[in-house]
Design a protein that fits this description.
- The protein is an alpha+beta fold and about 160 residues long.
- The protein is built from four helices and five strands, in the order βααβββαβα.
- The chain has helices at about 10-25, 40-50, 100-115, 130-140, and strands at about 1-5, 50-60, 60-75, 80-90, 120-125.
- Strands 1-2-3-4-5 form a five-stranded mixed sheet, with helices on both faces.
- The N and C termini lie far apart (about 45 Å).
């Protein structure tokens, strides 16, 4: 069952986001630090911010987490006014992956986005994460842009 997050979900969500953070640290140690990155302050912001939709997949155990920020693009000289959602994270406990939980979380957040008048959903994928890229493409998402880099100093 998918439901909105509650105050009692903090430790479960922290454990889930740690799994994703570990992958990022392993693949991009030049950007991500080891250690706990998901604190109570961030959790409280997610829990209480009206511009955030945050859900968990919970069937007696929290197995997945998704959160999306709602962004209003308005009064910009070169851009059309619009309301968009940006998925900050979708994570499924590694023990329960490939069981359709991620897809359910995505379809639920998509449905909630439509109900709030969001015109599109965006997210960012690291190039090393081919599994996530395939997953999102299978749900109908398409590349919109790319971020390129060149390292100037080896660390």
């Amino acid at each position: 069952m998918i439901r909105l997050i509650s105050k009692s979900d903090f430790e479960d969500i922290r454990a889930l986001t740690d799994q994703v953070h570990t992958i990022h640290v392993k693949n991009r140690p030049d950007i991500y630090k080891e250690g706990n990155h998901f604190g109570e302050e961030l959790f409280e912001k997610i829990l209480n911010d009206s511009s955030v939709i945050a859900t968990v997949y919970d069937d007696g155990k929290v197995k997945g987490f998704c959160y999306m920020t709602i962004q209003n693009i308005e009064n910009q000289a070169s851009m059309v006014d619009r309301k968009k959602g940006f998925i900050e994270t979708i994570v499924v406990d590694e023990e329960f992956r490939n069981q359709g939980i991620g897809k359910e979380l995505f379809l639920d957040i998509k449905s909630r986005a439509i109900k709030t008048g969001i015109k599109c959903i965006e997210l960012m994928i690291w190039s090393f994460n081919s599994f996530a890229l395939s997953f999102y493409k299978s749900l109908g998402m398409t590349p919109r842009s790319e971020i390129l880099e060149i390292k100037l100093i080896d660390e």
